[in-house]
Amino acid sequence: MLSLTTPVADLPGVGPTTASKLRRLGILRAVDVLSHFPIRHEDLRRVTPIAQLRVGQTAVVRGRLQLIQSRRGWRRRRLTITEALLTDHSGTVKIIWFNQPYLATSFRQGDELFAVGKLAVTPYGQQLQSPLIERVGDRQLLAGRILPVYRAAAGLTQRQIRLLMHRVLPLAESLSDWLPEKIRTSERLVRLPTAIHDIHFPPSPQVLARSLERLKFGELLLFSLAILRADQLRTSSQAAPVPFNKEKTAAFVRSLPFTLTNDQRRAAWEILKDLTRKQPMNRLLEGDVGSGKTAVAAVAAHGVASASTQTALLAPTDILARQHYETLKRFFSSSLRIGLLTRTQREAGNQPANSKRSFLKLLADGRIDVVVGTHALLTETVNFHRLALVVVDEQQRFGVEQRHALQLKGANGLVPHLLSMTATPIPRTLALSLYGDLTLSFLRQLPPGRQPIATAAVAPPAADRVWQHVRDRAAADEQTYVVCPLIEESDELGVAAATTEYERLRTGPLVNLTIGMLHGKLPAKEKTAVLQQFAAGSLDVLVATPVVEVGVDVPNATTMVILGAERFGLAQLHQLRGRVGRSAKPSSCFLLTESDDSEVRDRLAIVERTTDGFALAEEDLRRRGPGDLYGIRQSGLPAFRLATLTDLPLMKRAHAAAKSLLEQDPDLSKNTVLQRKVDSLYRTLHRE
Ligand code: ADP
Ligand code: MG
Q: Which of 55, 66, 85, 294 is the most exposed place for a label (fewest CB within 10 A)?
């Protein structure tokens, strides 16, 4: 008897080789087979007349074989080529397969077939290349169905996975549904067994949609429950009220090298007011690139210090932490004591702290007012004297840092107030679901005197003009970023991409300029050194991987050259462009692309004419769809396999359902199955 817990090796049709391949995909038991969800579906219900086949599109054709034969390749003798002609009422198409000689013996002239494949252009004319075929009337596994397409790693074929799925599918009936029945009916969701059955072999797109709705809802509900439970911790705790000194803080604002914009003033005030409360603040500051979020955080930190309490500022990278440290030192001159702590850097005031231990002691004794750092700040050995405020800048992995930050100890076991800052426009619904209950502040205006960044998409023939521009700017003592895309997956840190481009520019078009290079593999020390040289103006050009995307602030840089621009999303291009245009000088951004794809041209044209990051983000969302914009794919939130954070309406429903569930049963003790699932998700979120 098969059951959900039957090991894959005991399933019919699974030999030892297949079993070990399955295990490599993490599929150990029958139930794991069922939860190996398709990555997409192919709708093979519609038959396309041969005359209407379009190059590059997967289609189903139905026709009679006029001819089928195999032969050896002419030049490559080891290759077998099988060729066929298939005819329907509208025309004839040539078919070609490689190394599948048995096809010529299992099918013969006159057979009526379905063929599923793509039309390709070859030197020998248009051909259907390596289509899957089956006889009309046989047990049809392809044509007439909506076919699941699986992540087929480990050498497994789609056909193998589909057949296996077919066999274990009846077991779906015995899955027990963990979703409380009351929620399931009030949300009008299908049962779990139905949903699992239909996600694999849906009879129609409508049924598939219902299945996805159910499964995504489940994921989002669990996620919301985990977040809300973390938020219970915050709301049931108290924070230390910060009685900041109004006069001193006002004097600090006057001492800044610029006048705050009205938005900055309002945001800073909202934050300071929150800080005086016992209830822990949970506020998100949203402002486009270059809107001056750092200055707002500085005002808040100053207020905190004026009450003899401490601030921790958390940055996503070493580079950014170092930069914030330098900026704050400038802002505060000698009035506050600033510290820097990353995995590799440690400084207090201007002195590199002798040892980690002595640094931690300064922090624990309250002799550092503001500490800037990376994740290194979140380790257990870090203790504060009176931590009152945690600022999380440009967080990429939503909500996760925030929850970690809450575990930082405030004074006497009080939790710190929390301020998150982002340039990504996050809709309120999403923000609530990611961070728990929170309030929002916005910086809608840019500091005065900024000039719009002239943006142009450029094809290679005109690239010379771009490099001429870079040389001209260098002659005027202004600086340039050149950003290279990560082309190969194996080049995750961008070493190859950056090095190649660096060499090409250094010996070619920019031969007389001083050029630096920044990629992910450089030791932290060198990264910092290169960036410092660039910030100090001793480099004309910085060739970098997209690491400069977030936060880097060098106002004297006025040109941004983005290579392979088609590889970036709109929001990301905007972030990169935001590295220039940070002073009153005119700036330019060049989007180099070799692509003549009309879709790409359209996209780049939008960046050319739109300077509003929020508008661009919306457009990106519309075009690229879920996942990409919020960097969720990179962040790899383990909670989602199907849902994405951009499924907003569904997220809203799940969030509301989670809330009402917790109102009736705050610790889920009446629903232990659910409780166990939420707990395990909660632990995963924290392990990141
Ligand atoms: P972001 O919001 O992208 O983090 P930053 O905080 O890095 O922006 O600020 C961008 C630049 O604008 C910095 O060089 C900063 O010193 C400058 N800046 C911030 N506020 C103002 C202002 N009110 N007037 C003029 N320049 C400002
Ligand atoms: Mg910033």
A: 55
d(CA 612, CA 444): 10
Span 400-445, pLDDT tens digits? 555 666 566 666 678 889 899 988 777 777 777 777 778 899 998 8
533 & 401 share domain: no
Contacts of 491 (CB under 8 A, 6+ apart): 497
Domain that holds residue 410: 246-443
Tell me if 581 CB under 6 Å of ligand 1. Answer: no
Mutate to test the pocket of ligand 1, among 553, 554, 574, 576 (most ligand atoms within 8 A of CB): 553
Are both 388 and 431 inside the same structural domain? yes
Distance CA 256, CA 242 (A): 22
The residues whose Cβ lies within 5 A of ligand 2, an ion, are 551
Nearest to 419 by CA among 543, 524, 272, 545: 272
pLDDT tens, residue by residue, 70-84: 988 777 778 899 999
Ligand at shortest distance from the CA of 320: 2
Question: Is the domain of 276 the same as that of 379?
Answer: yes
Residue 10 three-state SS: helix
| Closest ligand by atom to 535 CA | 1
Domain total in the chain:
4
Instruction: Give the CATH number for residue 87.
Output: 2.40.50.140
Computed from CA positions of residues 144, 149, 153, 154, in that sequence, does the dihedral angle turn out positive or negative?
Answer: negative
Task: Please provide the DSSP assignment of 255-320 as one string.
Answer: HSSSPPPHHHHHHHHHHHHHHTSSSPPEEEEEE-TTS-HHHHHHHHHHHHHHTT-EEEEE-SSHHH
SS3 label, residue 183? helix
* pLDDT > 50? residue 627: no
Residue 206 forms part of a structural domain: no
Distance 394 CA to ligand 2 centre (A): 7
Q: Read off the amino acid at residue 326.
A: E
Q: The pTM is what?
A: 0.73
Give the integer Cα–Cα distance in Å for 466 and 472.
10
Same domain, 267 and 367: yes
Q: Note whether residue 415 is domain-resident.
A: yes
End-to-end CA distance of the chain: 39
In the predicted structure, residue 635 carries a pLDDT above the cut 60? no
For ligand 1, atom 20, the nearest C-alpha belongs to 292
351 and 330 belong to one structural domain: yes
DSSP 400-450: HHHHHHHTS--GGGPPPEEEEEESS---HHHHHHHHSS-EEEEE-SPPTTP
Q: Which atom of ligand 1 is nearest to the CA of 259?
A: 23
Q: Does any ligand 1 atom lie closer than 6 A to the CB of residue 422?
A: no
Query: Which residue(s) pair with 445 in the sheet?
Result: none
Ligand 2 centroid to Cα of residue 122, in Å, is: 50
- What string of H, E and C letters represents the secondary structure of 469-528? HHHHHHHCCCEEEEECCCCCCCCCCCHHHHHHHHHHHHHCCCCCCCEEEECCCCCHHHHH
- Nearest-CA residue for ligand 1 atom 15 is 292
Question: Does residue 70 share a domain with residue 38?
Answer: no
- Burial classification of residue 232, based on how many CB atoms lie within 10 Å of its CB (0-12 exposed, 13-18 middle, 19 or more buried): middle
Q: Phi then psi for 270, rounded to 5 degrees?
A: -60, -40
Atom of ligand 1 nearest to the CA of 327: 16
Evaluate whether residue 204 is within a structural domain: no
Phi then psi dihedrals of residue 85, to 5 deg: -125, 130
d(CA 275, CA 268): 11
| Higher-pLDDT residue of 88, 434 | 88
